[in-house]
Amino acid sequence: MKVLVCGGAGYIGSHMVAHLLENNHEVVILDNLQSGHKSSVLGQKLYVGDLRDSEFLDKVFTENKIDAVIDFAANSLVGESVTNPLKYFDNNIHSVVKLLGAMNKHGVKYIVFSSTAATYGEPESTPIQEEDRTFPTNPYGESKLAVEKILKWCDKAYGIKYTALRYFNACGAHVNGQIGEDHNPETHLIPIILQAASGVREKIMIFGDDYNTKDGSCIRDYVHVSDLASAHLLALKRLQNGGDSRIFNLGNGKGFSVKEVVEVARKVTGINIKAEVAERRAGDPAILIASSDKAINELGWEPKFNSLETIIETAWKWHSAHPNGYNE
Ligand code: UFG
Question: H or E element: which one contains 231?
Fold first, then answer.
């Protein structure tokens, strides 16, 4: 099938493109390169432009017979979303409204949407189930939850079938070491730890060690980016086979504390990465762990890189070869 990957030059999008090509699908990439990287697009058809530009979208859908869409195009910095919420509502919601409009106009009936654990906010219980309360504590999560609702109404009105995938902590890199995580600014734990390992930064700050957890630092569910990609393709196939619109969590169902992640990274890299305890970061829930039973049972998802060692090994392969990311 021919899949339009919006945000295909970004971190998760570029791994999705790789996975689709490895499974012999055709790919068309759309990215405004605001945070994506042209050099992550290895010889594929790339349209540079913005989803909010209807004429541009019309051109992409007219020039290509698209069978399905996977949408990663979004801003995703939680802190920035709190200080600049309108940026998030415009780029993360308005863009999907335009995209759905173009899909409807051109008769494209399937979309897999990149959602987030941030739709839940502070969890009611652990592990988090898809039916649990959604009460985002930041505009980023709010923007993704709003899109999930928009998708529901567009399914009813236009018959566009969707799957929304709520990721927990996306991490790791492609086993080939050629694509990986490169955000600017970098805010995510594992790349920051590995930047400390490769000397790009001096140390890692552990944001809080007075949480009510086993060692006082926050616990997260780390899920490999290539496993996320495989879940998207399974979700697309399920929709094509007549599956109804659904929401799934994607995580490994296992929590690791910040201190444990630092320890595993020291073991994998063989480097005594410097870590210091700092103040808590505003808005961080103590524990976020997914129940992914639904994805496993209903999508047939089988995460391959579900050990933290393997996740960090793949990330280290990328970071040690590309300490400055794509800009070298
Ligand atoms: N952390 C540190 N030091 C750092 C960076 C992070 O201690 O330098 C800690 C954070 O406080 C948190 C954990 O490491 O406890 C993971 O932090 P990340 O920033 O890597 O990831 P988050 O859990 O904050 O965010 C992830 C996704 C978001 C999503 C969110 C849902 O990256 O897109 O989960 O809550 F919104």
Answer: helix 225-240
Q: Is 65 in the pocket of ligand 1 (CB under 6 A)?
A: no
Residue 89: CB atoms within 10 A of its CB come to 15
Measured CA to CA, the distance from residue 181 to residue 97 in angstroms comes to 28
Residue 140 is among the residues annotated as catalytic for this protein: yes
CA-based nearest residue to 288, from 114, 126, 79? 126
pTM: 0.97
Cis peptide upstream of residue 127 (ω within 30 degrees of 0): yes
Q: Which of 181, 165, 183, 161 is nearest to 173 (CA)?
A: 181
Q: Give distance in angstroms: CA of 289 to centre of ligand 1.
A: 13
What are the tens digits of pLDDT across the range 26-51? 999 999 999 999 999 977 889 999 99
> pLDDT tens across 128-154, in order?
999 999 999 999 999 999 999 999 999
Cα 147 to middle of ligand 1, angstroms:
22
Convert the pLDDT of each residue in 193-221 to its tens digit: 999 999 999 999 999 999 999 999 999 99
Ligand 1 pocket check for 76: Cβ under 6 Å: yes
The angle, 0 to 180 degrees and rounded to 10, between the axes of the packed helices 54-63 and 95-105 is 40
